[in-house]
Amino acid sequence: MKLEMAAKRLAELGHETRLKIFRYLVKGGHQGVPVGEIQSALDVPGSTLSHHITRLVSVGLVEQRREGRTLYCVPQYDELHGLIDFLQEECCVNENNPS
């Protein structure tokens, strides 16, 4: 993952409401969570929720799919794991080589 994309994803997750949404989605698993359920569980107004979900979609952390009249939000675990790997990839590389 490139630094620029990691920074964008971290910036979106750096907002308290978006982080709550994403954490709720991760709990829901691979099948996704209906938008109405997210709204009820987190007590976020519909227009506000839509704005925050759009931001998460824009950086690839969430995808949406429609089944009939229900819109599901699906966390993108591969992207999440990529972000975690990016944060850890140089872990402790200087541990044995002090500056």
From TrEMBL:
CDD domains (UniProt xref): HTH_ARSR
Membrane-crossing segments per the record: none
Keyword presence, DNA-binding: yes
Pfam families linked: HTH_20
InterPro entries: ArsR-like_HTH (IPR011991), HTH_ArsR_DNA-bd_dom (IPR001845), Metal_resp_trans_reg (IPR051011), WH-like_DNA-bd_sf (IPR036388), WH_DNA-bd_sf (IPR036390)
Keywords: DNA-binding, Transcription, Transcription regulation
A GO MF label: DNA binding
Domain of life according to the entry: Bacteria
SMART domains referenced in this protein's UniProt entry, alphabetically: HTH_ARSR (SM00418)
Keyword match Isomerase: no
Domain HTH arsR-type: 1-95
Matching SUPFAM superfamilies: Winged helix' DNA-binding domain
Family annotation (PANTHER family): ARSENICAL RESISTANCE OPERON REPRESSOR ARSR-RELATED
NCBIfam families xrefs: HTH_metalloreg
Record's protein name: ArsR family transcriptional regulator
Source species: Amphritea balenae
Lineage per the UniProt record: Bacteria, Pseudomonadati, Pseudomonadota, Gammaproteobacteria, Oceanospirillales
